[in-house]
Structure formats: structure tokens, C-alpha cells
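Form 7-S
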Amino acid sequence: MSVSPEAGALVRQARRIAVVGLSDDPYRPSHSVAAYLQHAGYEIIGVHPAGGTVLGVKRYPDLRAAAADGPIDIVDIFRRSDAIPSLLDDLLAIHPPLVWMQLGVEHPAVTAALEAAGITVVQDRCLAVEHRAILKGS
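Output:
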């Protein structure tokens, strides 16, 4: 099963991707996916309470701080499913066109709230893997 055509179009149009949970450990999926997306030409915005710099980009403490420097096209989430509700207020405040929850990450109630606000949501999918499939379909 691939992502919806709407989500695919949003990925093709996107320029800025906030990676929530961007790790400085190169062996963590958040790091490798962000590196892949950066190499693919996207501007990566790191979001992690530890701050610092990863992959040459500043990590912001939260999504609102990350969005202060400009609109975010995709929020790519590398957090456990039980942590997703803590992101809801920030997601609604910054209102990205697409929220992407990585493999193993799902939250039906948050997804319903985001979709009710007009935000497209993808759950339990890897953005790097789907990006390759979306490009093949272009």
C-alpha cells in the first residue's frame, strides 16, 4: 500500500521538513532519514529538546520555535506513539500541510484531530522509503 496521491503531491511540493526527534546518533533512523532527505534537496529543521546542531542544522526545542524561521511543509515524527498527543497543540498551531509519522508510529485520535483541521496525515510509513516510490511515480 502506498501513500495517498494527496500526500505524494505534498511530498513533491515540499521544501522544508521538520524532523521531530532528530538524533545526533548516525545509527538512529531519524538521523539517517534526515540525511537522506537533506541529500534529496530538502531543507531539514531539527526538533529535539537537547538543542545543538545535527547534520549542519540547528535543532529547535519544539515545533513552534522551529516554525518561527518560516513555514514548515512536512513534520516528520520520530517519537513513540504515546508521545504523539503532546505534539498536537504545536501541530495545530503551525498547521503544516502534511504530518508524517514514521514506521511503528500511529495515533488515531491525533490523526482525526489533524485531519479535521485540514492537515494530511500519514502514519506508520517511512518517509525516505515512500519518497523513493513517489519519485518513481512522478
